[in-house]
UniProtKB/TrEMBL annotation:
Listed SMART domains: Resolvase
Presence of keyword ATP-binding: no
Domain Resolvase/invertase-type recombinase catalytic residue range list: 29-162
Protein name: DNA invertase Pin-like site-specific DNA recombinase
Upper lineage: Bacteria, Bacillati, Actinomycetota, Actinomycetes, Streptosporangiales
UniProt keyword annotations, A-Z: DNA integration, DNA recombination, DNA-binding
Species assigned in the record: Nonomuraea soli
A single BP term in Gene Ontology: DNA integration
Active site annotation, chain numbering: S37
Gene Ontology molecular function, alphabetical: DNA binding; DNA strand exchange activity
Amino acid sequence: MTTASLSVPGCFLPDADLLAAFPAVRSEILIGYARVSTRGQSLDRQIDALTAAGCRKIFADKKSGKNAQRPELKACHAFLSPGDTLVVPELARYGRSLADLITMVGDLRRRDIGFTSLHEKLDTTTPGGRLVFHVFAALAEFIRELIVAGTHEGLAAARARGRTGGRPTVVNAELLKAARDLLPDPGRSVTSIASCLG
Protein backbone atom coordinates (compact mmCIF):
# COMPACT_ATOMS: atom_id res chain seq x y z
CA MET A 1 0.00 0.00 0.00
CA THR A 2 1.40 3.39 -0.93
CA THR A 3 0.81 6.56 0.98
CA ALA A 4 -0.30 9.64 -0.93
CA SER A 5 2.07 12.56 -0.63
CA LEU A 6 0.64 15.52 1.23
CA SER A 7 1.62 18.82 -0.36
CA VAL A 8 0.26 22.32 -0.34
CA PRO A 9 1.39 24.46 -3.31
CA GLY A 10 3.46 27.46 -2.24
CA CYS A 11 3.79 26.30 1.36
CA PHE A 12 7.10 25.94 3.12
CA LEU A 13 5.67 23.09 5.15
CA PRO A 14 8.26 20.57 6.21
CA ASP A 15 8.12 17.26 4.42
CA ALA A 16 4.82 15.47 4.70
CA ASP A 17 6.66 12.80 6.67
CA LEU A 18 6.15 15.05 9.70
CA LEU A 19 2.67 13.51 9.79
CA ALA A 20 3.82 9.96 9.11
CA ALA A 21 3.37 7.40 11.86
CA PHE A 22 6.41 6.40 13.86
CA PRO A 23 7.61 2.81 13.67
CA ALA A 24 6.06 0.39 16.13
CA VAL A 25 9.39 -0.09 17.94
CA ARG A 26 10.47 2.95 19.97
CA SER A 27 13.41 3.05 22.32
CA GLU A 28 11.31 4.97 24.86
CA ILE A 29 14.45 6.88 25.85
CA LEU A 30 13.56 10.43 26.82
CA ILE A 31 16.26 13.09 26.50
CA GLY A 32 15.61 16.53 27.99
CA TYR A 33 16.65 20.01 26.91
CA ALA A 34 16.30 23.16 29.02
CA ARG A 35 17.34 26.76 28.41
CA VAL A 36 17.14 29.99 30.39
CA SER A 37 15.62 32.99 28.63
CA THR A 38 16.95 35.76 30.84
CA ARG A 39 20.10 36.41 32.80
CA GLY A 40 19.72 35.24 36.38
CA GLN A 41 16.90 32.82 35.60
CA SER A 42 17.27 29.41 37.22
CA LEU A 43 17.10 26.12 35.36
CA ASP A 44 15.93 24.25 38.47
CA ARG A 45 12.20 24.31 37.68
CA GLN A 46 12.80 23.12 34.10
CA ILE A 47 15.21 20.37 35.16
CA ASP A 48 12.78 19.20 37.86
CA ALA A 49 9.97 18.96 35.26
CA LEU A 50 12.19 17.05 32.82
CA THR A 51 13.34 14.68 35.57
CA ALA A 52 9.74 14.07 36.66
CA ALA A 53 8.87 13.29 33.01
CA GLY A 54 11.45 10.48 33.06
CA CYS A 55 14.31 12.01 31.05
CA ARG A 56 17.45 9.87 31.33
CA LYS A 57 19.79 12.69 30.33
CA ILE A 58 19.24 16.45 30.35
CA PHE A 59 21.14 19.07 28.36
CA ALA A 60 20.86 22.68 29.57
CA ASP A 61 22.03 25.95 28.00
CA LYS A 62 22.63 28.49 30.72
CA LYS A 63 22.82 31.55 28.44
CA SER A 64 19.98 33.50 26.87
CA GLY A 65 18.65 32.18 23.56
CA LYS A 66 19.29 35.54 21.89
CA ASN A 67 22.81 34.27 21.46
CA ALA A 68 22.84 32.02 18.39
CA GLN A 69 25.38 29.76 20.07
CA ARG A 70 23.58 27.06 22.02
CA PRO A 71 26.30 24.46 22.58
CA GLU A 72 24.16 22.19 24.75
CA LEU A 73 21.41 22.09 22.13
CA LYS A 74 23.98 21.07 19.51
CA ALA A 75 25.31 18.41 21.89
CA CYS A 76 21.74 17.24 22.57
CA HIS A 77 20.98 16.90 18.86
CA ALA A 78 24.22 14.96 18.35
CA PHE A 79 23.36 12.65 21.29
CA LEU A 80 19.84 11.78 20.12
CA SER A 81 19.40 8.46 18.34
CA PRO A 82 16.54 7.17 16.17
CA GLY A 83 13.67 6.07 18.40
CA ASP A 84 14.52 8.58 21.17
CA THR A 85 12.21 11.43 22.14
CA LEU A 86 13.42 14.94 22.89
CA VAL A 87 11.48 16.49 25.77
CA VAL A 88 11.37 20.23 26.51
CA PRO A 89 9.59 21.99 29.39
CA GLU A 90 7.84 24.33 26.93
CA LEU A 91 8.08 25.25 23.25
CA ALA A 92 9.74 28.61 23.96
CA ARG A 93 12.72 26.81 25.51
CA TYR A 94 13.45 25.01 22.22
CA GLY A 95 12.75 27.42 19.35
CA ARG A 96 13.13 31.18 19.08
CA SER A 97 10.33 31.50 16.53
CA LEU A 98 7.57 29.36 15.11
CA ALA A 99 9.53 28.87 11.87
CA ASP A 100 12.65 27.88 13.85
CA LEU A 101 10.61 25.44 15.93
CA ILE A 102 8.96 23.85 12.90
CA THR A 103 12.31 23.44 11.15
CA MET A 104 13.98 21.80 14.15
CA VAL A 105 11.07 19.45 14.89
CA GLY A 106 10.94 18.52 11.19
CA ASP A 107 14.67 17.71 11.33
CA LEU A 108 14.06 15.49 14.37
CA ARG A 109 11.20 13.74 12.57
CA ARG A 110 13.42 12.99 9.56
CA ARG A 111 15.89 11.37 11.99
CA ASP A 112 13.05 9.27 13.52
CA ILE A 113 13.24 11.20 16.80
CA GLY A 114 10.08 12.19 18.64
CA PHE A 115 9.44 15.57 20.26
CA THR A 116 7.43 16.38 23.38
CA SER A 117 6.68 19.71 25.03
CA LEU A 118 5.45 19.25 28.60
CA HIS A 119 3.71 22.60 29.13
CA GLU A 120 1.75 22.46 25.86
CA LYS A 121 1.15 18.69 26.21
CA LEU A 122 2.38 18.22 22.64
CA ASP A 123 3.81 14.87 21.54
CA THR A 124 4.79 14.30 17.90
CA THR A 125 4.91 10.54 18.42
CA THR A 126 1.09 10.60 18.47
CA PRO A 127 -1.23 11.32 15.53
CA GLY A 128 -2.74 14.29 17.38
CA GLY A 129 0.68 15.80 18.09
CA ARG A 130 1.73 15.46 14.46
CA LEU A 131 -1.53 17.10 13.38
CA VAL A 132 -0.95 20.06 15.71
CA PHE A 133 2.54 20.55 14.29
CA HIS A 134 1.18 20.39 10.76
CA VAL A 135 -1.32 23.12 11.66
CA PHE A 136 1.52 25.21 13.19
CA ALA A 137 3.48 24.90 9.94
CA ALA A 138 0.47 25.91 7.86
CA LEU A 139 -0.20 28.91 10.11
CA ALA A 140 3.44 30.01 9.94
CA GLU A 141 3.30 29.89 6.13
CA PHE A 142 -0.02 31.77 6.11
CA ILE A 143 1.41 34.52 8.34
CA ARG A 144 4.52 34.77 6.15
CA GLU A 145 2.35 35.13 3.04
CA LEU A 146 0.25 37.86 4.71
CA ILE A 147 3.41 39.79 5.60
CA VAL A 148 4.79 39.47 2.06
CA ALA A 149 1.45 40.53 0.53
CA GLY A 150 1.22 43.51 2.90
CA THR A 151 4.76 44.57 2.01
CA HIS A 152 4.05 44.36 -1.73
CA GLU A 153 0.80 46.31 -1.33
CA GLY A 154 2.57 49.00 0.71
CA LEU A 155 5.35 49.38 -1.87
CA ALA A 156 2.81 49.57 -4.72
CA ALA A 157 0.82 52.24 -2.86
CA ALA A 158 4.00 54.25 -2.22
CA ARG A 159 4.99 54.03 -5.91
CA ALA A 160 1.49 55.20 -6.88
CA ARG A 161 2.07 58.28 -4.67
CA GLY A 162 5.40 58.89 -6.43
CA ARG A 163 7.60 57.62 -3.63
CA THR A 164 10.38 55.14 -4.26
CA GLY A 165 12.10 53.00 -1.70
CA GLY A 166 15.75 53.02 -0.78
CA ARG A 167 18.20 55.80 -0.16
CA PRO A 168 18.03 59.05 -2.10
CA THR A 169 20.16 59.17 -5.24
CA VAL A 170 23.50 60.86 -4.57
CA VAL A 171 24.60 61.25 -8.19
CA ASN A 172 22.44 63.32 -10.52
CA ALA A 173 22.79 63.45 -14.33
CA GLU A 174 24.97 66.59 -14.25
CA LEU A 175 27.43 65.11 -11.75
CA LEU A 176 27.59 61.85 -13.71
CA LYS A 177 28.44 63.75 -16.94
CA ALA A 178 31.22 65.66 -15.16
CA ALA A 179 32.68 62.39 -13.83
CA ARG A 180 32.62 60.82 -17.30
CA ASP A 181 34.34 63.88 -18.77
CA LEU A 182 37.18 63.59 -16.22
CA LEU A 183 37.61 59.82 -16.56
CA PRO A 184 39.68 59.82 -19.81
CA ASP A 185 42.32 62.04 -18.14
CA PRO A 186 45.25 59.63 -17.44
CA GLY A 187 46.34 61.69 -14.44
CA ARG A 188 43.10 61.06 -12.60
CA SER A 189 41.97 57.92 -10.79
CA VAL A 190 38.36 57.04 -10.05
CA THR A 191 39.03 57.84 -6.38
CA SER A 192 40.43 61.29 -7.16
CA ILE A 193 37.46 62.06 -9.46
CA ALA A 194 35.04 61.02 -6.71
CA SER A 195 36.89 63.22 -4.19
CA CYS A 196 36.94 66.14 -6.61
CA LEU A 197 33.22 65.97 -7.32
CA GLY A 198 32.26 65.30 -3.73
